[in-house]
Amino acid sequence: MPNSSAEEYVRAALALQGYAFDTAQIAEIALQFSRIEAVAHTLLEFPLPWGSQGAPVFRP
Amino acid sequence: MKQALDVAREIRQGTTTAAVVLAQTEARIQALNPGLNCFTTTTFKRARREAAAIDALRARGAILPPLAGVPYAVKNLFDIEGAVTLAGAKINESNPAAARDAHLVARLRAAGAVLVGALNMDENAYGFTTENTHYGVTRNPHDRSRVCGGSSGGSAAAVAAGIVPLSLGSDTNGSIRVPASFCGIFGLKPTYGRLGRGGSFPFVNSLDHVGPFAANVDDLAALYDVLQGPDPTDPACAQRPADPVATRLGTIVGLRVGILHGWFHEWSDAAARRSVDLAAGALRSATGVQPKGAELKSAAAARAAAFVITAAEGGTLHSARLKSRYAEFEPQSRARLVAGSLVPAPWVVQAQGVRQQVYEEAMGLFKRFDLLLAAATPVIAPVIGTETLDINGHALPMRASLGLLTQPISCIGLPVCSAPLWPDGNAAGAMPLGVQLIAAPWREDVCLAAARALEQAEVARVSTSLGL
User: Which residues of B207-232 are buried (b: 16+ CB within 10 A; e: fewer)?
Assistant: First the structure.
């Protein structure tokens, strides 16, 4: 079950990006978004050194 | 089914012809595919042309290319000249046919291999089960009530069933390694950038890999060698010379093996842990060195980074058509795709930063180890339609969780060979569960040499008694 702030975010972001979905579809998308958000928490807590470089084009 | 290299040798020696081999392959497809649903398209007309060209070459006394007359098939996200590239999506059926072969298909054509068709997959490669609503589920050849894995499910099932000796797939988060594990065959996810992706339908550019499947290590290495080479159409393809491995898969005596603990142990069930134990024991015998525990402490963050990047890039790639043709997308993944397109930019930036940190931690591990070992999947192949996985008492959504052990590795682009282990041995109904043999960047030779050691020890094996 997505939390209310996630569902509000999803509604706003869908509107901002020009999607048009019915209530049931929005609920399903919000559920999926909440799953991504739950996984993302692990990521957001990861301490990155200040100024560290990302890997947008990854070349080992 | 014979090994690919045996087929090529027999054609070279004239004990059979490419036309005969092709006819046998067509018969296997007709007999086995209705029950398994590996193929979405067959290319028999092209295959007959290619086989005839090989037989004509031999009749003229020409030197035949390395895979002359060997049948193969590709995941249906690879362009095949004259065919529509589906990438598992009904919405792509109205696209124009491909004007030319994908880079890897062209390389196989030049190597004399004979393309017999395109294989089923999860729509847009966003899945681990090949339960495709539009093109049907591909069933596991070892137990048709179970999934074959995905997203390259058709590619793995076709090799496991003995229909073709070789196939191609792609791996963004585990889509070669998961189906190889579930179907009990060998699969290679090379280093990110090693094999050219030109003419393959994209999913997540910063994570997409392409690679081969085979039923034995010699065939896998030979196929991998043929696939190597520069691809000017793929900006991520590394500017490195080809590094053939097939003739130098030597001894692994002295190889230092690290068994990945922490995340990889926690998310492995009892069967997965048995596969790792079996592999570790065989590697200890082959190397003469006791494997030691190793931990990639940032594995959870790596998996999260892969998950977020996949959601954001994959969702954004399809966002235009999701707005206008949502109903035509795969019901199993369309809401996930839309949700991904809404991911806030700071999460993606953080994910790319984490990725670099994880890579640096892994490089530290490779100062102590030459090879890292982990299970390829948390569990054996689930029954088709399963919604929730129980992994050591944790209930998780099945379709998003089968890549728990593969995502932290592909996130940092390391080469991995998935080798088929059988945690329950030869017991009735036993299912395979593969292990990941992970090496430092560009050391596919180490992965493959370790896989061959497991194969020679008969710990890794491809079952030929499928009861089909």
Answer: bbbbbbbbbbbbbbbbbbbbbbbebe
Q: Is residue B75 flagged as an active site residue? A: yes
- Nearest Cα residue to B453 out of B289, B286, B290: B286
- Identity at B52, one-letter amino acid code: A
Within 8 A by CB and 6+ apart from B133, the residues are B123, B330, B331, B332
The answer, yes or no, to whether residue B25 has pLDDT greater than 50, is yes
**How would residue B465 be classed by pLDDT, with cut points 50, 70 and 90?**
low
Beta carbons of A59 and B308 less than 8 Å apart: no
Q: What is the pLDDT of residue B400?
A: 84
At B250, the pLDDT band (50, 70, 90 cuts) reads confident
**Pairs of CB atoms within 8 A across A/B:** 120
- Partners of residue B359 in chain A, C-beta under 8 Å: 55, 58, 60
pTM of the full structure: 0.96
Strands B39-42 and B114-119: antiparallel
- With an 8 Å Cβ cutoff, are A19 and B338 in contact? yes
From residue B77, alpha-carbon distances to B30, B34, B41, B86, B106 in Å are 22, 21, 12, 6, 14
CA distance A25 to chain B (A): 8
**Residue in B closest to A20 by C-alpha:** B323
pLDDT over 70, % of chain B? 99
**Averaged pLDDT score across all residues of chain B:** 96
Ramachandran bin of B417, using left for φ above 0, alpha for ψ from -120 to 50, beta for the remaining angles: beta
**Residue in B with minimal Cα distance to A55:** B352
Antiparallel, parallel or unpaired: β B371-375 and B257-260: parallel
Instruction: Mark yes or no for CB contact A29/B339 under 8 Å.
Output: yes
CA dihedral B160, B77, B415, B212 (to 10 degrees): 40
Q: What is the ipTM of this complex?
A: 0.91
Express each pLDDT in B263-272 by its tens digit.
Answer: 999 999 999 9
Q: At what angle do helices B334-341 and A23-44 cross, to 10 degrees?
A: 60
Residue B230, SS3 per DSSP: coil
A25 vs A2, higher pLDDT:
A25
Residues in contact with B241: Cβ distance below 8 Å, sequence separation at least 6, in sequence order: none
Exposed e or buried b for every residue in B152-182, given b needs 16+ CB within 10 A?
bbbbbbbbbbbbbbbbbbbbbbbbbbbbbbb
* Helix locations, B239-333, DSSP H: 263-266, 270-287, 299-325
Question: For a pLDDT cut of 90, what percent of chain B falls above it?
Answer: 95
